[in-house]
Design goal:
Elements lengths: L1 E5 L7 E5 L6 H19 L10 E3 L3 E5 L4 E3 L2 E3 L12 E14 L4 E10 L14 E2 L11 E3 L8 E8 L5 E4 L11 E5 L5 E3 L10 E10 L6 E7 L7 E10 L2 E10 L9 E8 L4 E8 L4 E5 L7 E4 L3 E11 L3 E6 L2 E4 L2 E2 L3 E8 L2 E9 L9 E8 L2 E9 L36
Parallel strand pairs: 4-13
Antiparallel strand pairs: 1-2, 3-6, 5-10, 7-8, 7-11, 9-10, 11-12, 11-13, 14-15, 15-18, 16-19, 17-18, 19-20, 21-23, 22-23, 23-28, 24-25, 24-29, 26-27, 27-28, 29-30
């Protein structure tokens, strides 16, 4: 006589624990009880190694209310699990204090039933009509999609598979795999995203892109642009869309125009209306542009004139943002505004034009021409103009190498609207 333990969840396996002779009846009875408990735990999967049951799913997914959510998911099962000839069903449940009685199985499962391809469950009380098991469990795909996500979709989820009696398994945290339950988090409607060009250059086409992402099928938003102040009537817009998956699309509208100096500081605003939500959002960006220094052909440039005090040279450039101007006289670099006993430098700027004068005092201008250059530099580049090419004569008047310039009184003009060095704000 022995004790037989049948395991309905272990592919028809059973174990028998035999009784010992009467002399050791008490000890044998105790051992049999322990063995029975161990085998029962094995049947329930409490002492088995579940490494062959694995699920890969994001820890958390964040989406906007009213938008679509696609959660990629995959799972694997041990080889023996595939021996069942029954169809493989997958079920997603939202973890709550409720329980669900699955039709056709007479099994109560913790949580609210949300999605499955098992047609027997379509009439369950908490069956979601906007959440779909988009993956194919037969291929190890447990991905799911939520359309027009609402507050009743917020929370943690767990996945369960069923391939007939004795072939049922729920993916719950265990010592071998702690993460099995994805968390769905919903947020309020966010502002749209504007993609800006790397830099905006005067008279060069610039394209700004406004994007509405993760849109559900058939929920195309209305996207428009406007400028403030409306001083740039010549621009072109183009609409586009891309499909991320069967359940999600991205829409956008591009605006392209050639900016001028007068456009610096204008505000570009993207407006998006979500008709299905009866809501609208907008986002704005301020335009500032830049281009490399160019020698002016209108203002005095690359000239030198003799004066009573010495020789005064002038250079002028146009660019944005205003440049740093640097003089070089016979290899000596001079920057900033100021004066010494040998020279005086003055810079000024107005709008996108910048000029500078260099007064070389007391030089022997009748017999020696120094090599003089003027360089303008800003974040987009630099340009150098040669003021005097120099001569083969040796200067008897040497410039100080380290003598600092002392400030001179001068009016410095700047544009009333400063452009960002990065090109955009």
């Amino acid at each position: 006589m022995g004790i037989t333990v049948a395991c309905t969840g272990c592919r028809g396996r059973s174990w028998q624990v035999a009784n010992s002779p009467s002399k050791t009846k008490l000890l044998a009875s105790s051992l049999a009880t322990v063995a029975t408990v161990i085998l029962t735990l094995l049947c329930k999967g409490m002492l088995t190694n579940n490494l062959d049951f694995r699920i890969t799913v994001p820890d958390s997914i964040t989406a906007q209310r009213g938008f679509c959510i696609h959660v990629p998911c995959s799972f694997t099962t041990p080889d023996w699990y595939k021996s069942s000839s029954e169809p493989l069903y997958g079920y997603w449940f939202r973890i709550t204090d409720r329980q669900t009685n699955l039709e056709g199985t007479n099994i109560w499962v913790p949580g609210e039933f949300k999605a499955s391809r098992d047609e027997r469950q379509r009439f369950l009380k908490f069956h979601s009509t906007h959440m779909k098991l988009s993956g194919d469990p037969e291929k190890g795909d447990c991905s799911f999609t939520i359309i027009n996500a609402g507050l009743d979709d917020w929370g943690q989820y767990h996945f369960r598979i069923d391939k007939g009696e004795s072939y049922r398994y729920s993916f719950n945290p265990s010592s071998s795999q702690t993460h099995t339950n994805p968390q769905v988090v919903l947020t309020d409607l966010k502002k749209p995203k504007i993609i800006k060009p790397h830099e905006v250059i005067w008279e060069k086409p610039a394209t700004f892109r406004c994007i509405a992402a993760e849109m559900c099928p058939g929920t195309k938003p209305q996207i428009t642009w406007h400028t403030e102040p409306d001083i740039h009537p010549v621009y072109a817009t183009s609409s586009w869309n891309t499909q991320q998956s069967n359940w999600s699309s991205t829409y956008g509208v591009d605006i392209t125009f050639k900016p001028s100096l007068a456009d610096d500081g204008i505000v570009l605003t993207c407006n998006i209306k979500y008709h299905f939500l009866k809501k609208a959002v907008h986002v704005a960006t301020r335009l500032s542009f830049g281009y490399r220094p160019t020698a002016s052909t209108i203002l005095p440039n690359a000239t030198c004139e003799n004066e009573d005090q010495g020789r005064r040279c002038t250079c002028s450039f146009h660019c944005w943002p205003p440049p740093t101007l640097t003089w070089e006289v016979d290899g000596v670099t001079v920057t900033g505004n100021g004066s010494t006993s040998d020279m005086e430098v003055l810079h000024w700027a107005e709008g996108n034009a910048a000029s500078s004068t260099l007064l070389w005092k007391g030089a022997s201008i009748d017999h020696y021409d120094p090599f003089i250059t003027c360089t303008a530099t800003n974040p987009f580049g630099k340009q150098t103009v040669v003021i005097l090419p120099g001569s083969n004569q040796t200067s008897e008047h040497h410039l100080p190498q380290t003598s600092p310039l002392s400030p001179v009184h001068a009016n410095i003009y700047k544009s009333p609207r400063q452009a960002d060095l990065g090109g955009l704000s």
